[in-house]
Amino acid sequence: MAHAESLTRALQSARIAFFDYVPDRPRDPQTLAGTLGLAGTLEWVGTHFGIRDLDSRGLDAVADAVLAEDRESFLGVFRPGQGTARGGEFRISPADGRVTFLYCDANVDMGEDGHPARIVGTLHDVTARHRFEDRLSDTLREREMLLAVIDACPISITVSNGRLPDLPLIYANRTFETLTGYGRDEVLGRNCRFLQGPNTDPAVVQAIRETVAAGVQAEIRLVNYRKDGTAFLNRLVLAPIHDEQGALTAYLGLQADITDEARREDAERQRQRIEAMGRMMGGVAHEINNLLQPVTLLTEELIARHSGDADRAYLDVVLNCALSARRIIGDLLAFSRPGSRRAERLLADDLLRDALVLVRKAVGPGILTELDIRDGGIAVRADRTAFTQVLLNLAGNAAAAMAGAGVIQIVLRAHPPDGAPQAWRSARIDVVDTGSGMDRKTVERAFEPFFTTKPVGQGTGLGLSVAYGLVKEMGGEIILDSAPGRGTTASVLLPEAPQEDAKPRETPKPQEIPKEDDHHVHHTRH
Amino acid sequence: MSTILVIEDVPSVMLSLRIVLEGAGHAVQCATNGEDGLAALRRGGIDLVVTDIWMPGTLGSSVIAEGRRIAPGTGFLAITGGAPNGSVTPDQLARDGADFGADRILFKPFQRHELIAVVTDMTAAPGA
Lengths: 526, 128
Ligand SMILES: Nc1ncnc2c1ncn2[C@@H]1O[C@H](COP(=O)(O)OP(=O)(O)OP(=O)(O)O)[C@@H](O)[C@H]1O
Ligand SMILES: [Mg+2]
Hints:
By secondary structure, chain A is an alpha+beta fold.
């Protein structure tokens, strides 16, 4: 008996119970109706798990403590049925209200009548394990959610292992893949420098190296390359992650493609510079105009008085200089003038064809102009004269860059601006030459008034600044794309004019090709 | 022959205007600022006023507004080369149809024949 007692104590402290259950022979189903059919002899050793009246009521007492939802699994163990070994889990909530998870492991001896004769087994409190598993799965779920969030984040995120030499990547999110075109499996384990390329500034690479060596945070702009070789300006934020001891464990990298942003900033800077210069020019013009006034009037007065004179020729020179100066001042102001001229709503293709008549005469022999209208029918608001002047200036530059011999391609197409609603379009006119091209420094300064690389007497350096002002007045912009040796593309973007103030072209030319499929290329040699 | 009052702060411009206008047979009175110009107008006998617009002190446009009250029958010709601070340029004014309240406007630097044509026109006009 001492033996049984100590066994009971041991089982109690281990929260285990042993049972031996001999069910009553089932009599007729009538008697069973309304009961759970759990009548029988129950021997129970070990903990009662807080179940009351176990000794007197037997399995019915257990059944009462089982949570309603788990009743089926409980009955699956103890009620007569098929199979000889049963196991299952169910929860009980005895009077004290605490829920206990019980795991039951049972062995069934089948009687000759096909009903269980005896069921022997153990019951085990597995609440603690359950609680742990719950917490574990919560943690896992949280981690998974966090990873999913980071993965879906619209910012490119990478993590490098800071404990290994050369900081190999151990994580890259989906945006990194879309940004760079590299798959995760291609990049994990490598240092992120595979994104660098020919135009990556070595000084910036050095700065990254120093940042990482110092284990500090930094924001760096550098030229990176996608898998397909295209370059983009990357705003890279590097942030170290340290462990509790302060040792570097990882480096977080955030990458953002700021190519367009940088381009816009650049254009804005240039615009501001030109506008400031325009204001200055306006002030200078006022002074010069006042100085030219007496030069002009008095010279003319003298010419009138010395009409038959030998000195008259000198006076003509003075007057011509004054008049040239007046013209230059006028040109100079053209690029800084705000407000509108006689802007009309015109089809870009019509505008272009009209302007080309003059342009072809102006560019000189040896220059071939090709007009390629890819998208016809885009209406813009523009002043014909101003537009012609713009095209003249651009074509003049193109012709000069090709030393007077070559092909200028002029392409008109629709241009959807980035980020703008689909309905909003521009007419984009590209003036493409295969001339000398410009280096970066020249492109940067090309719009400045008086900036010229032409020999003295050949260019005033006003062509592009005038064109810039005129196009700005039409609500558009000019963009230069050039590289030495490759040639230059000057693009004029004119916003599409809304339908409201539609003014049809006065006299449609009968020989005109239908606008819709106007892919014709005109070749004209002068 | 008419009597023309020229209001202009730049001496060399004033000189050239006077020479040309006198050469065309007109009598010229000179004022180097708006106040002096208005004083001359009050004395009477002026057929035509030629005034600069941007001058220190009273602006040409004010001179014209005030001058019309003083001498209702007088013609006003504005001449300008744009604003000294660059905020307004002559071609811009031309486009905007700016007239500063004047009957006619010439943008500096204009030529001798332009000036003579406008002045002849204005002094021949009925009521001038
Ligand atoms: N298509 C082009 N190809 C190569 N360089 C160009 C091109 N267009 C412009 N440039 C460069 O930009 C400079 C400025 O051009 P811009 O038209 O303003 O003046 P310019 O042609 O030198 O003189 P202007 O037009 O007043 O006669 C040019 O001198 C040239 O160096
Ligand atoms: Mg040029």
